[in-house]
Amino acid sequence: MEPQLSHQVTDSVATVVIRRPAKRNAMTTAMWRALPPLLDALARDREVRALVLTGAGGTFCAGADISTLQGSPEEAQALAVAAEEALAAFPKPTLAAVRGHCVGGGAQLAAACDLRLAEEGAVFGVTPAKLGVVYPASSTRRLVSLVGPATAKYLLFTGELIDTGRALATGLVDEVLPEGELDKRVADLTRVLASRSQLTQAAAKEFAGGRTDRDAYWTAQARGSGDTAEGVAAFLGRRQPHFTWSVSAPG
């Protein structure tokens, strides 16, 4: 099978799968390049309300294909950062579903998601110190925001792998599931995410990311969206709300 990123949309949830099982789903240059335009297309799809990133087979992603560093390491790193930033900027909730190895560039991608769920037995590592690579500033800041400076330094300085217990304790993952239960939990959680107000989610995502210049924009969006009125009416009527505001709408 050729290395590729496959995707499908089911019940308003887009699932992007990293497929290169022979190399533990290590990302090729072409795969790094393919991710941003794929994410852009899914962001514009009004049917999509949440996105799951996962790996084929029994592993998430073992990072970048090391052979890509032999030519121009700077170019290879720039491609990885562009893919990471595109994932972080995806305007709808994103979730990494992790099995097996989540290492190097794979950990970069998982950290760029809003949520991370892992199956017991998964391992995580940030490994540039094993290669003499300077980890990007943006990626370092994102890692620090997740796990704090002490754990980020441990991961970056040592390049050692950590298990799901430590990943959960440090905030690198949000939930750890027993073997065989990850898919069901991901399906249940994304069903919840897809049912909630995109207006609330999109504004919260920006605010949590540190943006401080769009308060007036989001106030205007809330005023004209109808989502608040629908949410209140649904609550009082003891029914499920039908929110209509979409991040893919013009403006």
Structure description:
The protein is an alpha/beta fold. Helix 1 (29-44) links the parallel strand 2 (13-19) and strand 3. The chain has helices at residues 29-44, 73-88, 105-112, 137-158, 164-170, 182-195, 198-208, 215-225, 227-236, and strands at 4-10, 13-19, 50-55, 94-98, 101-103, 115-119, 123-125, 162-163, 175-177.
Notable traits:
single chain; 251 residues; alpha/beta; 6-stranded mixed β-sheet; 3-stranded mixed β-sheet; globular
Describe the structure concisely for a colleague.
Helix 1 (29-44) packs parallel to helix 2 and helix 2 (73-88) runs parallel beside helix 3. 46% of the residues lie in helices and 16% in strands.
Write the SSE topology.
Layout (H helix, E strand, L loop, with lengths): L3 E7 L2 E7 L9 H16 L5 E6 L17 H16 L5 E5 L2 E3 L1 H8 L2 E5 L3 E3 L11 H22 L3 E2 H7 L4 E3 L4 H14 L2 H11 L6 H11 L1 H10 L15
Parallel strand pairs: 2-3, 3-4, 4-6, 5-7, 6-9
Antiparallel strand pairs: 1-2, 7-8
